[in-house]
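Student: I would love a firmer grasp of how sequence relates to backbone shape in proteins. Thank you; the sequence and its tokens follow:
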Amino acid sequence: MSGRTVSAQVVARTSAYVDDELKMGVLTLDRLWRSGVFAQLPAWFPMARSGGFGVEALLAVAVMYLVSGVKVGIRPFLERRDRSMRRRLGALVGQRSLPTAASLSRALVRYEHEGVRGFVSHALGHSLDEPLLAHPS
């Protein structure tokens, strides 16, 4: 036998690890948080639902999912996140956690189309530059 030695180093995932598919979402949420968007959300989209997750957590999930570019549905996307990761991601937007897939479903079923449409119009108007919106074309 040869006197060859092989050594290996095992690196455990730390609690600070963020999956590659979440990195752009984390950066986007951070940018939105710093710009003050999340502070304005309750006024833009009031929720009649007491308890549960607020509009901030719901928008955070939508941003994380859409920016990730994953080719799975939102339920499998959320089911990949353990409680610890949902808490860390929720903390980015001042929430105790991001919702589970079941919590998200319960929250979304309560919305009427007109309420969501008003929010989208308002958010779109605030996300574009005013000179662009005022342009005659």
About this structure: Confidence is low (pLDDT under 50) at residues 10-15.
